[in-house]
Design goal:
Elements (H helix, E strand, L loop, with lengths): L1 H38 L3 H16 L4
Length: 62
Amino acid sequence: MPVLALISAVLVVTLEQYVEWKYGIAGIIGLLLLTVGIKARSPGVSSAGAVLLALLMARPAL
């Protein structure tokens, strides 16, 4: 079980670093809103985070 927790923590930190590198502070805020909204079961907050991340990812295509 501790190995699974360690692997999970490493994956989360890696994802966070990638989002910050690729999308900057706005990406971190979007990821934070998404995770807080999911954990708090708040569809408004998680939707705001998802929309922010979607806009950041779609920006180069626009």
